[in-house]
Amino acid sequence: MSDKAKLVLGDKTIELPVFTGTEGEKAIDITKLRAETGYVTLDSGYMNTGACTSAITFLDGEQGILKYRGYSIEEIAEKSSFLEASYLVFYGKLPTATELKTFEDRIAAFDDVPEGIKTMIKAFPKDAHPMAVLSANMVSLSAFHHDLCAQDLTPPQKDQAIAQLMGQLKVMAAYAFRHSQGKDFVKSDRSLDYCSDFIHMMTGNKNVKKEVAKALDVLLILHVDHEQNCSTSSVRLVGSSKANIFATISAGVDALWGPLHGGANQAVLEMLEEIKGSGKSYQQFLDEVKDKNSSSRLMGFGHRVYKNFDPRAKIIKKACDSVLATLGAQDSLLDIAKGLEEVALKDEYFVSRKLYPNVDFYSGIIYRALGIPTNMFTVMFAMGRLPGWLAQWKEMVEQPGFKICRPRQIYTGDTKNTYKDLKSR
Ligand code: CMC
């Protein structure tokens, strides 16, 4: 096949290079299109735009495949740990035992935040959404760590930023939660692994069940990276202006909060509760969702890229059963979720639009079983996605030809208005 695409515009034909990725994906490189023809491309919602090349995550939405650095998500979820998977996305290879230990220790060393951040958390109303607190805390760290606010970080500074943010986001999330409960902060315990320590900092209990920590670890692994999703693209966009790393990551937190993205995990639980409370049948609820006059959606279903089962949802669904069994817990919301899924997957509306459960459909049920409250779910997503944001930022700033991201538009407004002074309008 030709490695050029031909574009005919009126009586002019131009050739555009075709770029092929390592998994065989093809893209038409339009970098020179405007210079050669005066045209730009128009792609609302970036449905068909490859904004960058990246060697971190591969995902095939038609076949339901997800890989981090060439390793399947199923294998990583089964055999790896959250911090090992994070190392993998940052540095492009699995660490040796020594490298992993050093990495874990570096992250564990960032076991607190400046006093000013603690004061700030305490100043928020108790019912503040923890994502608001997290976003504000994240950007505020730039006021305390000037060394990491340089325009271009050196390699050791980048390593420090990675370890520091991995450590401090965990602390800020746990502190925000404690504050919302009207309780004192619990100091991190470096002898615990990352997930056990987080649960300890939330609950004050150091004896975290191995199975509970493992379940949380797997959930975080499943969220590590997902190529150019809304929050990651926000991180790249903001980071491309050379905004400091704290401001850059805070943009990711903000984008994640929306219910069409990471906020969906909270929305799913609220939806399941609503179905339970209303006594509606699954079909009745789905009929409401399908009604084009209603703005509600089946939360946790559908995905921009997956037009098949989201592989992460499959893993989480299985984990739900085993976590509840291990904890000896039952959750009627799991039965509702399974019932809803079964009916939706047979419904012509969802079948024809290729709408399947996504990562958020079942994750909330596990968080609930682990004792994590609903308004913390999106914060958990942020903890999981932080390595992806950092890895994508690092890859971007290290790529040759790095440029500020700046899309174009096609103007559709008025063309010639004449100014009238205030009195004559
Ligand atoms: N419930 C009902 N209808 C839906 C849903 C849904 N969850 N998702 C898509 N549709 C319909 C939509 O109405 C449209 O129908 P029509 O062609 O008749 O107008 C069609 O399916 C295509 O939807 P779209 O909104 O054009 O698709 P998109 O790629 O722009 O949106 C999405 C993807 C994830 C935002 C969307 O599926 C959605 O809103 N899902 C619910 C929210 C959710 O679970 N988000 C988490 C996504 S996965 C984790 C993450 O990335 O954060």
For the structure shown, list the relevant keywords.
425 residues; mainly alpha; three-stranded antiparallel beta sheet; 6 strands; globular; binds carboxymethyl coenzyme *A
What number is the mean pLDDT?
95
Termini separation comes to: 62 Å
Q: Whole-number radius of gyration?
A: 23 Å
Describe the largest sheet.
3 strands, antiparallel
Summed up, the helix count is 18
> What is the topology, as strand order, of the major beta sheet?
1-2-3
DSSP E strands, number:
6
Structural class: mainly alpha
Task: Enumerate the distinct ligands.
Answer: carboxymethyl coenzyme *A
Which percent bin holds the helix content?
40-55%
Strand and helix order = EEEHEEEHHHHHHHHHHHHHHHHH
As a percent range, the share of strand residues is 5-15%
Q: What would the principal axes of the Cα set say about the shape?
A: globular
- Poorly predicted regions: none
